[in-house]
Design brief:
With 412 residues, the protein is mainly α. The protein is built from 14 helices and no strands. α3 runs antiparallel to α13 and α5 packs across α12.
Length: 412
């Protein structure tokens, strides 16, 4: 890694570092609360034997993030960040309290949908605020800390959620999630930086709502990066659906063996996120890192399709987690670097919608594919598709990043 200017390093460790660390802490707590809540909700519905209710919960968790993309991004770019995010956090806490109080399936589905309507605004809001706090130069480092905190929450959440439900019932994990949302709102008040809208950039309402999507579609680098990440997540999600069958049916593994695979992946993502935060910056280097990470994930998924037992899966799954951590950080950083400040809310909302759509599609594709193909074959095909996609669109993205670098060098 190239040496950094001591003055710049000192500046980062000052107010910027303080705000980033605060965000990592209270956003990590919020992610942990969300994990507890989801465990409680699924354990509330699953014993009733209503498969449609499980599917409805999954849809309620995802659909608002897709449908509200244009509106959410526009609101984030039109309203001051801190008042908006604090207000959203309070509403999220109230809705989550309702989830703990009302126990019917219908109320769970409705309130979870309402909660994710609010989350559709808060997710791009925090992403855009981070970019304002750090600037493009330090955004990658901040993303490493934030993704690492999310990775810790993803490991601890299911474990603590199961323990809490067993010890206290299904309501307390939801009340704790409500407290985590309130804590996140309170923590936002202590952030020194603020993101303010720029009235000079406003155009027509329809044009403004679609500005983030249009920017991605026109950008020679973001377009292949988004296609690459979308197909990569679709393949990875499909493999995740097959994973439980691969472990428990193909290899006759236990529930603990399956749980340890998730833990291995989670530990890998934490390491990968922190490693990515230390990589050299620059669009060309970040694009290369992203491409290599996705190629590695595809190759490792294919390799898992050839293992002889469950134990052999763990090291490969840890490596996949590391690569996914790198991919998450570098992809978010590229979108931040290529987006003008006044459009970042809409760009991050569009990115979130695309990734959520890939996750929904993976669930559907995974269920359909597993009805006709063995889990081992799903790993081989999914990995092969991810690898081929990464090579094709990765080459396009690297070429675009080089062209951008050359144009900027000529301008200087």
């Amino acid at each position: 890694m190239a040496s950094e200017d001591p003055g710049a390093r000192s500046a980062y460790r000052g107010a910027v570092s303080r705000d980033v660390h605060l965000l990592a802490i209270f956003r990590g707590v919020s992610f942990l609360g969300d994990s507890l809540a989801l465990v409680a909700l699924y354990l509330r519905v699953a014993p009733l034997g209503h498969a449609w209710a499980i599917a409805a919960l999954a849809v309620a968790s995802s659909l608002p993030l897709v449908l509200l993309t244009p509106v959410a991004g526009l609101v984030v770019d039109r309203v001051r960040a801190k008042p908006l995010l604090v207000s959203l956090g309070v509403v999220e806490a109230l809705i989550c309290s309702g989830l703990g109080y009302w126990h019917s399936i219908a109320s769970a589905i409705f309130l979870l949908f309402a909660l994710n309507v609010v989350v559709a605004f808060s997710m791009p809001g925090y992403s855009a605020l981070v970019a304002t706090i750090t600037g493009t130069e330090y955004f990658t480092r901040a993303q490493g800390a934030l993704q690492g905190a999310q990775g810790v929450a993803s490991i601890l959440g299911p474990i603590l959620g199961g323990l809490l439900v067993g010890a206290t019932g299904q309501s307390w994990p939801l009340y704790i999630d409500a407290i985590s949302f309130a804590s996140c709102a309170l923590g936002t008040l202590f952030i020194k930086h603020e993101r303010r809208p720029d009235p000079a950039t406003r155009r027509g309402a329809k044009e403004d709502m679609m500005a983030g999507i249009l920017l991605i579609g026109r950008d020679s680098l973001l377009r292949p990066v988004l296609v690459n990440v979308f197909i990569f997540l679709l393949a990875l999600g499909t493999v995740n659906v097959a994973e439980v069958f691969y472990v428990t049916v193909t290899f006759h593994g236990t529930a603990l063996a399956y749980g340890l695979i998730g833990a291995s992946f989670g530990l890998g993502t934490i390491g990968g996120s922190l490693f990515a935060s230390r990589l050299e910056h620059g669009q060309v280097k970040m694009t290369r890192s992203l491409t290599l990470a996705v190629v590695l994930v595809g190759a490792l998924m294919t390799t898992i399709g050839f293992v002889a037992n469950v134990a052999q899966i763990y090291p490969f799954m840890t490596l996949i987690g590391i690569a996914v951590g790198v991919a998450n950080v570098t992809a978010n950083s590229l979108f931040a670097v290529r987006s003008p400040e006044h459009l970042r809310g809409r760009v991050f909302a569009a990115l979130s919608a695309a990734l959520t759509t890939a996750e929904i599609g993976a669930t559907v594709v995974g269920g359909a594919v597993l009805s006709v193909i063995a889990p081992r074959t799903v790993f081989r095909l999914g990995g092969g598709i991810a690898t081929l996609t990464a090579v094709i669109f990765g080459v396009l993205a690297i070429r675009a990043s080089r062209e951008t670098f050359e144009l900027e060098a000529q301008g200087d």
